Amino acid sequence: MEQNSVHIYLEDQVLDHCIRMDKVKRLTSENGVVIFTKSSCCLCYAVNILFQELRANPLVYEIDHDPEGREIEKALLKLGCNAPVPAVFIAGKLIGSTNEIMSLHLRGSLTPMLKGQPLS
């Protein structure tokens, strides 16, 4: 009986992870620019301000305000984020974290990626 309990527990964990992954994919596919952040993260704040200045009108999703935030963080890492936050998606595609975003911006490549996305 104990083996069955462990099996059910692992199935529940996998199911929970899939639900969080679906939530991330849904949010990023339904919104032009999505930034997953934590409210206490200064790098998240800097990336958010950059997108505001570019008039990108991002959906900012603070995972530390979500009871399922830890699972969402794991889902972001599984999707390929090198750091769970900030994680920036444009048009449903993972662009990256702070280093990638700032590098793209300094090269002048970030603004063209925002073409066709809703502006504020």
UniProtKB/TrEMBL annotation:
Pfam families documented for this protein = Glutaredoxin (PF00462)
Gene Ontology cellular-component annotations: cytoplasm
Compartments annotated for it: namely:
Cytoplasm
* InterPro entries in the cross-refs: GlrX-like_pln_2, Glutaredoxin, Thioredoxin-like_sf
Superkingdom? Eukaryota
Main location group: cytoplasm
Q: Which UniProt keywords apply?
A: Cytoplasm, Redox-active center
Domain Glutaredoxin: residue ranges: 33-95
Show the NCBIfam families listed in the entry.
GlrX-like_plant
**Which family does the similarity line name?**
Belongs to the glutaredoxin family. CC-type subfamily.
Protein name, as recorded: Glutaredoxin domain-containing protein
What is the species of this protein?
Answer: Vigna mungo
